[in-house]
Amino acid sequence: MLFPHSSAALTPPMGWNSYDYYDTTVTEADVRANAEVLARELKPYGWEYAVVDIQWYAKDAGARRAEFQYIPFGDHAMDEYGRFQPDPARFPSAAGGRGFGPLADYVHSLGLKFGIHIMRGIPRAAAHRRLPVHGTPYTAADLADPSSICRWNPDMYGVRAGHPGAQAYYNDLIAMYAAWGVDFIKCDDIANTNMYPHAPYSGRAEIEYLHNAILHSGRDIVLSLSPGPALIEQAWHYAQNANMWRITDDLWDKWEDVRAMFDRCELWQDHVAPGAFPDCDMLPLGRIGRGFGAERATALTRDEQRTLVSLWCLFGSPLMLGAELTQLDEFTKSLLTNREVLRLLPPSFRARQLAKDEAGAVWTCTGPAGADGQPERYLALFNFCAQPRTMAADTAAVPAWQGAAPAAAARELWTGETLPLPGARLAANVPPHGVRLYKVEG
């Protein structure tokens, strides 16, 4: 089933997001520099979105980072209708009420698409000042629900579900973003409103308002919902209203985070469809952490990084890179430009977990039939252990491969190594926390 409001995300979106390196402090110069690298080095491989993450409207972002990630009652750029605007000190082209239009135009000129992060709801400052909601007889105070707040960001109140001005508010907001040229919206505090354990889906109505507002705008805008973990019992509702939704909280460069994603992918693997993708979160690769006061190269080993990229591609997650692209190293680039691995993203290819225990997991992937009438076949061996070990799988036991020609050899997509297959058994030595991802050939 296709997502009804966007033809832009029939395959998992791929791009760059400012959060993992810059946190709240990204500037226009930073976005332009990273977009240029994205266009030059990665766009030929399918990477196309440049996304400005959280608090682009904050005039004091990062000023008290030792105390707060998000400063309570911070100084925010806002128009007369209570709509956040890019901070002109950080985004000079936004001056004079131009918003993100000039920056989006620049990103588009590179052949890329432009995205922004927003928070669910209506700004608290707009409600306190009773600012008018553009195009309606209501004020922000009329729409604001002060009992609906975010646990970790103090900028917003939720919008009152069912209020006669609620949909009009979101229509106007999205119309402004569409006029700026926005192609991608990441909305936060909405996939799981984790301030309220008894009501973790209290943002349901606002998801629908966003969905309807994008339809109303007439622009193809990808809708991404955060944070996770998304609620499996709401899988149908996510797919009806969004292109992607986070199935985990923030994922960082720790093996424990990567290992946990195998459990989440097992839970969500039946809900990957064209235009609707469970999201494993950003790729914490390359150089990250400057805005958090901990700039570093990713702490994941090279084998752990290959494991992460392999799982994300097999599962069908969107791919959003958080690295500082102007410092892109050759190994990280090799992960992001492996055409054979990236090619496994759905919908043309469909992967399934074949087996999993405490020591490792086996995934299979089946692609379209070739000229010989045989489907493309892939098999991945993932080692969860801290030491290398031999892993094996029986290619004849894969349900989707029944009736296919017997496997004769297997070629590993990261190393290029080719193995003969005696009978149907594929056995390989897999490094610690590593993967061996094979194309099985008849």
Structure description:
- With 442 residues, the chain is of the alpha/beta class.
- It is 25% helix and 23% strand.
- It contains twelve helices and 21 strands.
- An eight-stranded parallel beta sheet has the order 10-9-8-7-3-2-1-13.
- The radius of gyration is 23 Å and the shape is elongated.
- It starts with 13 loop residues before the first strand and ends with a strand.
Layout of SSEs?
Blueprint: E1 14-17, H1 19-22, H2 28-42, E2 49-52, H3 101-109, E3 113-119, E4 122-123, H4 124-128, H5 140-143, E5 144-149, E6 156-159, H6 166-180, E7 184-188, H7 204-217, E8 222-225, H8 235-241, E9 244-246, H9 255-268, E10 277-279, E11 287-288, E12 296-297, H10 302-315, E13 319-321, H11 330-336, H12 339-342, E14 350-356, E15 360-369, E16 375-383, E17 389-394, E18 409-412, E19 418-420, E20 425-430, E21 435-441
Parallel strand pairs: 1-2, 1-13, 2-3, 3-7, 7-8, 8-9, 9-10
Antiparallel strand pairs: 4-6, 5-6, 11-12, 14-15, 15-16, 16-21, 17-20, 18-19, 18-21
Features:
442 residues, elongated, alpha/beta, 6-stranded antiparallel β-sheet, 12 helices, 21 strands, 8-stranded parallel β-sheet
Strand content: 15-25%
Which radius of gyration do the C-alpha atoms yield? 23 Å
Helix content: 25-40%
The total of beta strands comes to 21
What ranges have pLDDT less than 50 throughout 5 or more consecutive residues? none
Give the spatial strand order of the biggest sheet. 10-9-8-7-3-2-1-13
Largest sheet: 8 strands, parallel
Shape: elongated
Terminal-residue CA separation: 33 Å
Mean pLDDT: 95
Number of helices: 12
- Find the structural class using helix and strand composition: alpha/beta
